[in-house]
């Protein structure tokens, strides 16, 4: 590329940089500035500079630390379940069987459902009075009486996790299936001729081939689940007894419910820093994949 062409490319990028800086950079800088103040949402009193006090208070706030634990637990359980279930389904639909094309087409439906719709749908399924889950378990004799899934402190978070896994496992399955499409059949046939069993073919040929794609899916899903907000807020609003309150919901409540924009911004900056670490992991995975 010549110098003139390079300059032309830089000029064409300028509008995108300006838009990105305006839409993302400026709110982020403003949030960073607010995190060093005691600004309130109503702004009835002049905001004062408090330095790093909001950040120090954040690491001594039991509510914030508890919400971070909920976020990390949610990410751990949901991502692990999605990776295991999604990979298994991807391997299954890769095999030849009657109706395979229809099953592959249906596989994308859960992932295509908007998160809001998915949350409302599962709220109806979990409804303690007329929900389909209670009715099914009662008819099968597994339960003797209807139960409240989202109002029970011990069952609320697992119920939300299940709803999120149902929606997103198909994404991992589709990524696995796309990786399997590029696996040369000659390698499998050669392994069969050499006497390799099904387990050996999977662990020494199939799994190493799909791992780079699974790594990308893994990091992307970790980022999405750590900053989870919508599905939890719609289903329980962080209750009962804050047992499902994630870090993002805590930031929202601190800033807009408690009207403490300063400390809420500090909590948000900490969440952003945590997510940035995960993004660095994602970029490292991509770099490793390209070099390999």
Detail the topology: elements first, then pairings.
Blueprint: H1 3-34, H2 53-58, H3 62-94, H4 100-112, H5 115-125, H6 132-139, H7 156-181, H8 185-193, H9 198-226, H10 230-235, H11 247-257, H12 261-291
Fold and architecture overview:
This protein has helices at 3-34, 53-58, 62-94, 100-112, 115-125, 132-139, 156-181, 185-193, 198-226, 230-235, 247-257, 261-291. With 292 residues, the chain is mostly helical. The radius of gyration is 24 Å and the shape is flat.
Concise account of the structure shown:
Helices cover 74% and strands 0% of the residues. The protein is built from twelve helices and no strands.
Proportion of beta-strand residues: under 5%
Bulk shape: flat
The value of Rg in angstroms is 24 Å
Structural class: mainly alpha
The counted number of beta strands is 0
Oligomer category: single chain
Q: Give the ordered list of helices and strands.
A: HHHHHHHHHHHH
Number of helices: 12
User: Kindly state the mean pLDDT as a whole number?
Assistant: 88
Q: What are the low-pLDDT stretches, counting only 5+ consecutive residues below 50?
A: none
| Main beta-sheet annotation | none
Helical content band: over 70%
Roughly how many Å apart are the termini?
26 Å
Key terms for this structure?
292 residues, flat, 12 helices, 74% helix, mainly alpha
């Amino acid at each position: 590329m010549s110098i003139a062409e390079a300059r032309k490319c830089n000029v064409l990028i300028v509008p995108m940089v300006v838009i990105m800086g305006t839409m993302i950079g400026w709110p982020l800088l403003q949030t960073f500035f607010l995190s060093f103040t005691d600004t309130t949402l109503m702004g009835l009193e002049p905001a004062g500079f408090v330095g790093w006090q909001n950040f120090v208070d954040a690491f001594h706030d039991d509510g914030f630390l508890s919400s971070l634990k909920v976020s990390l637990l949610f990410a751990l359980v949901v991502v692990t379940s999605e990776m295991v279930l999604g990979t298994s389904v991807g391997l299954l639909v890769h095999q030849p069987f009657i109706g395979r094309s229809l099953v592959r087409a249906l596989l994308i439906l859960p992932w295509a459902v908007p998160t809001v719709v998915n949350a409302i749908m599962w709220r109806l399924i979990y409804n303690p009075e007329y929900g389909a889950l209670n009715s099914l378990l009662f008819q099968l004799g597994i339960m003797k009486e209807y139960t409240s899934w989202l109002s029970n402190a011990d069952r609320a978070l697992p119920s939300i996790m299940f709803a999120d896994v149902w929606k997103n496992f198909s994404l991992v399955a589709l990524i696995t299936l796309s990786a399997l499409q590029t696996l040369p059949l000659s390698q499998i046939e050669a392994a069969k001729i050499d006497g390799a069993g099904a387990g050996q073919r999977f662990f020494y040929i199939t799994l190493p081939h799909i791992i780079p794609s699974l790594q990308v899916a893994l990091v992307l899903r970790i980022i999405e689940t750590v900053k989870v907000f919508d599905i939890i807020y719609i289903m329980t609003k962080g209750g009962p007894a804050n047992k499902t309150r994630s870090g993002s919901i805590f930031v929202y409540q601190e800033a807009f419910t408690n009207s403490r924009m300063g400390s809420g911004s500090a909590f948000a900056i900490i969440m952003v820093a945590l997510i940035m670490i995960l993004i660095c992991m994602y970029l490292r995975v991509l770099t490793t994949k390209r070099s390999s």
